[in-house]
């Protein structure tokens, strides 16, 4: 199915901050579901170009948002980066609250601009699914956590539409519980800066053969020799999705400087009764590929254990057999089947 993606941007605050996006467009079926997804570190919204036509063919609208600094979205300002590096805890918390509110503003504005269907008939139709992929969860979780920071009208419109929140392989930058063996090329000083992003793209898109998932035994360093990385599947298209400019460097600053704030956002979005009450129709799930990099699988277990400690907070957890970090690139149809199951 040939799909011509459209692109655009939305101003999300009084300072003129813009978030840009690509959009599959509306399917022909009334009461369709809209997926709004936020990308990870080093990759822009083009990383979802393979799944967007599949989504449309399956009756979903699929909108991929560029985070601050990616695509045509407004970069973080030097003052904001200084706050992340050296700001007080209160200043950092306020900055990340603002980032979350900007995302909520985008979702509400896009829904109104395109008259997205609201939830209907006991969740059988309509509504919005908010998905964070990888480091994109830092934005989506902060958005949900700050639902009470938006005006009452915005909050009511979001409550009428937000049917699901999906955590797709969030990284442990959202928490302090990092595994002692955690490693990735981007944070390794032994590699020159110009080599880090190309190496990271191949490593993060690889498949890993973990020794024993039942025993939580993981392979942290060496990708599988049996399955080529996703970057080998259409390397030219993959190159369009990679951003080797200033945005990934800013992300590294955020990841290093904001772990406590991101962890609080994760806990609030998933476990705060007031947040969940404000979004009464929102179903929450967290999934990870069984062949994804080890630090993502490890954090899946961290969140799963945390949910058990919170005593029955409803979060659905899925370990997806055979999948790596770019399952939507290599297996878009299977990924759409999974999304459908998680948001039903």
TrEMBL record:
Keywords associated with the record: Hydrolase
Protein name per Swiss-Prot or TrEMBL: Alpha/Beta hydrolase protein
Taxonomic path: Eukaryota, Fungi, Dikarya, Basidiomycota, Agaricomycotina
